[in-house]
Amino acid sequence: MTFVVDVVSEDSFYENICLGLTKLLENTPGVQGIELEKRLPCERMLISSWEQRHLCSLPEDLRQFYSSTDGFRLIWNYEYAGEVLPIGNLRINSIAELKRLAGVKSSGDAECPNLLDIEICNQSEPRSTKPNFGSKCKVFELDPCQNVAKVCLVYMEKPEGDTRKEEPKIWLLDRSYEWHFLADTFTQYFRMMLVHQGLPQWQFRFTPMGLTPWAEQMMFMICPHLLAEQEVKSPRFDPSLNQIDPSIFKTRNKSSKQKKGDK
C-alpha cells in the first residue's frame, strides 16, 4: 500500500509554523495591523555557499527552516490610550542577513577598539563559559531586536584537538556586550519567540536585568499569564514540546519548487 502526503498550501504552512499565533492575535482586544511576510524557500545552493564561506554547518532544524522560508517576520500593533503603537515584532534574519559579528577594526581608524578589545576589558568570567569575539568562536546575528540587543547563533570555541561536531546555541548580546543564554536549539528559541508573541524586549525576561518597566507593562496588558510565574529560572523548555515537524518544511519546499516549475 502506498501512502501519498498532500503538499501543504502556503497558508497551511504558516499556520503550522506559527502554532496558531496569528489567530490568537486576531482575537486579542486592541491588537491590529497584523502583517506576516510570506517568503520563498532559500535555495539549497545559497545554504551550501553560506556554510562553505563560514566553514561551519547550520544545525539541522535551522537548515530545514531556511529550506522552507528565507527568514521570518511577523509584526502587529496595539491600540493603547487612543494611540496605535507598533508592539509585536517576531523576526528571523534571512540567510543573506545571517552575518558574522566579529572584532573587525574600523578601516577609517586603526586606533578604534573592536568588539574583542571591549570584551577583554569587560571580561569578568572565564572565556570558555560564554561566547567571545575571537577568531575561533563564531557568532551570527539571527535578530537585531530593533537595536536594543542582538539574538545570536553561537558556535563556541572548541578545545584544541576536539573534532566533535559543534552544535550552536542561541545567546542574547545586550548593548553592554554582556552575554545571556537563551536556548539550546533554534527550534526551542523559535517557540519561545512565539510564546512571547514578539513583545518588546521579551528576551530580557531571561536575563538578570529583567524587563524595563514599559516592556513589563505591555506584557502585563497583553499577555498577563507570562508574568504569572513568580520566578523564571531558565528559558529551557521540554524538547518534546518544541519540535517543528520536519515534514512541514519538506512539503513546503516541494510545493514551492512545483510553483516555480509551473512558471
From TrEMBL:
A matching Pfam family: SMI1_KNR4
SUPFAM superfamilies assigned: SMI1/KNR4-like
Domain Knr4/Smi1-like: 41-192
Region named Disordered: 238-263
Residue stretches of biased makeup (Basic residues): 251-263
Signal peptide extent: none
The protein's name: Knr4/Smi1-like domain-containing protein
